[in-house]
Amino acid sequence: MENSWSWEQKTLVSELIQGMELTKQLRQNLGAKSSAETREFLLQKILSSYEKALLILKWSGPMGQRLTQSLTQGVTSSLPGSPISADESPRSDDFDRGVKDQHEPKDLSKKRKVLPRWTDLVRVNSENGLEGPHDDGCSWRKYGQKDILGAKYPRSYYRCTFRNTQSCLATKQVQRSDDDPSVFEVTYRGKHTCSQGSNSVQPPPSPEKQEQKPNNQNYVPQLQYVEQVSVNSPTNLKVNNEDLKHKEMMAPPFSFHSSTYGCATGGDNFSALVLENETFLGSFSQSFLSPATPESNYYMTSPCRMNNLAGIHDVQCSKSELTEIISANTSATNSPIPDLDFSLDHVQIDTNFPFDTPGFFP
DNA sequence: TTGATTTGACCACT
DNA sequence: AGTGGTCAAATCAA
């Protein structure tokens, strides 16, 4: 936790405050001649805010509180699916295993690696033969390929070329999407420790090689989050909401300026997700979206947030790594990432409310 | 010749 | 027992 409040706490407070503000608005509307739709809209937003706050409370709990448990119980009933379970890649259980492995190292000679598994998942759209701006800054060597049950396409396994020379244990898996063969799902595992982790530039592979060596731009060394990147979109940070709709439903649609809501390191713009489905955003706070740019529908979130969404607490969230992520993700295009500044300054805080009371937060 | 890829087999995990 | 992840020998390519 940095400063006095963690990201979760700040977000939780903002959600509660927002709920309060919306309630005030609703009260005013009740006295005025507002339409039933307006009231219903406000009511929906209030419920959404409190629902998100409850989710945060759950996610902010002890490590043992698995996201999957949260997702299948109580307040999440209206949010089907999970950013974790909705995807076939290992995540929270991997994380648990990784933590366990860290504390209980087993036979290192065994095939199943004992390195912590911080799973990242990046989807790269390589349509039109574009070489995905998928520079993760490290050279990869393929060490295996496997047909996966229920998947049309085999999964390829890569490890860092410098695995032996620099003991870089980073690995990644690449699998072509069943739904959209032009989309590759890249799951990163482990942390890059090689010196070239963020510097090397690989020559663009042939389109066919793209599957085997998805190239460039998505260096996500250890943070676990689910992200979908379309290389061809105006911004490479565009989210194909079709595939993520279930996941996104679980992702509280917060957007904020990272200086206010960034992860523990703060100060950097971490990543941006661009949603195409406006209806999805409709239920979100207007505080998070600029009404002046309805077609944009940008919202930003922090990988740390995604960490939590993926059932992982911000265990490893160094500033340098996050900076790398952002620089990698934003270097392909000069697409401006709207600065959706959302801060507590925008809302009134009842100074009497003991947010900082010990025990208020779990 | 050297490094990368392929692929069958082994092993861990559930 | 089924599945996924990794190993390592064989093969390929520069």
TrEMBL record:
Residues 129-192 form the WRKY domain. GO terms for biological process: leaf senescence; response to hydrogen peroxide; response to ozone; response to salicylic acid. Residues 73-112, 193-215 are annotated as: Disordered. It is found in: Nucleus. Its main location: nucleus. PROSITE patterns: WRKY. One of its GO terms (molecular function) is DNA-binding transcription factor activity. InterPro entries: WRKY_dom, WRKY_dom_sf, WRKY_plant. Residues 88-108 have a biased composition (Basic and acidic residues). Signal peptide: none annotated. Keywords: DNA-binding, Nucleus, Transcription, Transcription regulation. One of its GO terms (cellular component) is nucleus. Belongs to the WRKY group III family. This is WRKY domain-containing protein.
